[in-house]
Design a protein that fits this description.
about 450 residues; 23 helices; 2 domains
Length: about 450
Amino acid sequence: MWDLIRLIVVCVLMVILLRRQVNLGLVMVVAAISLGVMYGMGPVKIGTIAVHSIVARDSVNLVLALIFIAFLEHAMRRAGMMQKMVRALRVLIRDPRITMAALPAFLGLLPSAGGARFSAPLVAQVMAEFEATPERKAFINYWYRHVWECLIPIYPSLIVAVQILDIPLDRLLTATAPISLFAILSGIVPAFGGLPLERQLSSSGAGQLAGSAAQPLGHLYKANNSIDDAANSHLDASDCTGARNRALADAAYSLAPVIAIVAGVMLLKLSVALTVGAVFLVMLVAGRYTIGETWRLVKEAFSLNIVFLVYGVMFFRDVMVASGGLERISPFLVGAGIPPLVILFALPFLVGFSTGLPISVSGVALPLILGILRSSGSVDPALAAFAYASGFVGTILSPAHLCLILTIDYFKAQFARVQNMLWLPAIAIQVATLILTLVRTGLTGAR
């Protein structure tokens, strides 16, 4: 009982601090120290745990992975890969509804805070062909921006989850991959229900759309990289074949780094840090970066917040483990008659909904339910995937989610209406994942 009370106090403290927009890394450090004090740990003990969290191999690997991901994202943007892929999608995909979803989904391959703001103008441009409400536009941009969070191994929340759960990344991704499929499918009805089956464009409008890929792809953006100035040139119909071929080449070029990372992690079983670092190095060599250019890129992309956040999360985890409370909380909840699946849903969902931060689900919620996840001696990937899905659903519904706030602001949509559109597909994901979990684990009603 007292372990649970201590935990609730710490969680309330974290929510209060996050609501006051205190840095998440600092919040985790404060939570770790507070938890240690409540368990009677002295300054020496807490300091020793903090030092161990900094020098531990898994912490170092996690920091390197996230730093290299930031470097890679910056290099891809500098190389124009994102712009080229956007142009390619508009040429290769005939159905504009698929393009609407594909644009934010592709940009979602590279996780970045508030990234939905980058895709919002592109979605708005494609949806200008339809009579669509601001809320529908906001939903499409926000929802499909996040469908890869349970699949792509460069998402920080997945990387942290692997460290917390101590299972191979490929095993976790195999278990969580269906969640992304559920997300893609469950968003179809609220996103596209009622939209016409055919593109509603005049011949001149079609020419403009096709023409957006005819000019050299480097011209997609103006010198100031304004997304809203994109795709306004004209193309003769006889050049469509050439434009399509160029689009295919640009699509392959733009996806190459992400494909290489997934292959390295999933097929070759390489670490995320090593794989992303190698891909980043290849991009530097291929782009003929000078030492000065590389240094400027690194300075622009590097963030101490990433380092602080990782160490804060790992410090909090290590204090929880050292306190011994983790081993007692889950048995207490189970002994109180609460079904394990209810716990695996409730804790990640509440943490995700309260913070709007996927990484907080991995860093805060998963340590709390490790006892249940390890009920058979080792972490059950199916149960871990269910808990991860619960956290994902919580964050996607959270009014504190930065992407949701930015998207609603861009489209001038009504918050309540957008959030109402989110509930049905979010519930569908949770129910589908629950059914899949029951099938995978062979759980009975008693369990």
